[in-house]
Write a structure and sequence with these properties.
single chain; alpha/beta; Rossmann fold; 2 domains; 4-stranded parallel β-sheet; 13 helices; binds ligand L6N33NVT; binds fe (ii) ion; metal-binding
Length: 379
């Protein structure tokens, strides 16, 4: 085993195998155009703000065992009872206040599409048409499964899955990848896949956040006393069970503070969007802004570095609810710094991250297509 003769014999055997006439399987990607696919994935969004659209979206979301870890026998009666009776109306109202009327869709959808178009343009400039970029939502439309199928049909025999969450959590990153893998389970001939690691401490991401803070603060007629980095929360028990999300959020906030170089304590962090009665990650955003106002920090700026795109949790919850809590407690000036969205700093950072994670895949795409075409001529 392992001798030069052994390998020579193996090689001859494989050549003989390849030379057998083979019929082309039905799900074979077109040989002429082997490409690499990139799928940007975000959380999801209702199709409209009416009761039934909201109910459908919330049901899909809150039936995900990655999101709600309560055993089904206990959770289902609660979900199908009180939650899906009351929440669709309440959340629909919140969505209505931030809805993109022009496109008749949620801002998360609008921004995610723009991010995908930006990343596609950046990669096309570098690699021509050998990289195909698409986008999808974990819950609702456009769904992840059909997007994977579309990439395959466009000749992508390698796909990079990119969950658009800077901080890893099983509730977001893992469930997005799960959904893609579910589609792969249906395929006889799967594309090869890679997943983009979370990027909570990537220098390019911290730099884009810092530049955004500086840009927005420079446009104000005052200097905020405190910058609060507000992250979406999680039930605390998920941290106790090993979800690293909390630690990654804290690290992002620390790196942002270091990059800004402000005096200690001027950048703080907190967690928003509590759902249900259990304890969630602390400190809570609403309580924090109230305490800041009472402590005389009456001018604050809030940024949401855990969201790659503005959505109901930032545009409605931070800009209306959190602001109201701050003002009611004695706050005077409240500035919301938007998510990085499709700002060029962000798009270039995302494209660079994709490029790095494609390492070795993309430059070979043209050569692979030529080689594979040749194989099929001789086979
Ligand atoms: C950014 C990271 C997010 C984590 C972590 C997260 C965990 C998480 N979320 C819920 C419950 C809800 N989240 C809702 C909306 C929502 N959540 C995120 C992101 C994270 N969620 C985003 C980007 C959005 C907005 C989507 C949009 O279309 O704008 C909602 C729906 C809105 C509402 O009813 O408030 C719920 C519900 C749980 C339970 C959870 C972790 C266990
Ligand atoms: Fe959420
Ligand atoms: Fe919320």
């Amino acid at each position: 085993m392992g001798s030069a003769r052994y390998y020579a014999a193996r090689r001859d055997m494989e050549v003989t195998d390849i030379m057998q006439p083979i019929s082309k399987p039905a799900d074979h990607p077109p040989v002429s155009a082997r490409r690499v696919g990139v799928l940007l994935m975000n959380l999801g969004t209702p199709e409209a703000t009416d009761y039934w659209s909201m109910r459908r979206y919330l049901k899909e979301f809150l039936s995900d065992p990655r999101v709600i870890e309560v055993p089904k026998a206990v959770w289902w009666p609660v979900l199908n009872g009180i939650i899906l009776t009351v929440r669709p109306g309440k959340s629909g109202h919140a969505y209505k206040s931030i809805w993109n009327e022009e496109r008749n869709e949620s801002p998360l959808k609008t921004v995610t599409r723009a991010q995908a178009e930006g990343v596609a343009a950046a990669l096309a400039a570098r690699h021509g048409d050998s990289v195909v970029v698409d986008w999808a939502m974990r819950y609702g439309q456009p769904a992840v499964g059909p997007a994977i199928q579309r990439l395959k049909e466009q000749g992508c025999d390698r796909i990079l899955l990119f969950p658009l969450y800077p901080q890893y959590s099983a509730t977001t990153t893992a469930t997005a990848n799960d959904q893609a893998f579910r589609q792969l389970m249906t395929m006889r001939w799967q594309p090869a896949v890679r997943t983009v690691p979370a990027y909570h401490d990537e220098p390019g991401y911290i730099e884009a956040l810092a530049r955004s803070v500086v840009r927005h603060i420079a446009a104000l007629d005052h200097t905020p006393d405190v910058l609060l980095a507000s992250f979406h929360g999680l039930p605390k028990v998920y941290l106790d069970r090993g979800d690293p999300y909390h630690c990654f959020c804290v690290k992002t906030a620390r790196l942002l503070a270091e990059r800004l170089g402000w005096e200690p304590g001027r950048v703080q962090y907190s967690f928003q969007s509590r759902f249900g009665k259990a304890e969630w990650l602390k400190p809570y955003t609403d309580k924090t802004v109230e305490e800041l106002a009472r402590a005389g920090k009456t001018k604050i700026a809030v940024i949401a570095p855990g969201f790659s795109a503005d959505c109901v949790e930032t545009l409605e919850e931070i800009q209306f609810q959190v602001k109201d809590a701050f003002m009611a407690a004695g706050g005077e000036r409240f500035t919301y710094i938007p998510c990085l969205n499709d700002h060029p700093d962000h798009v270039i950072f995302l494209a660079d991250l994709v490029e790095r994670e494609l390492g070795g895949w993309v430059d070979g795409a043209g050569a692979r297509a030529a080689r594979d075409a040749e194989d099929h001529v001789t086979a």
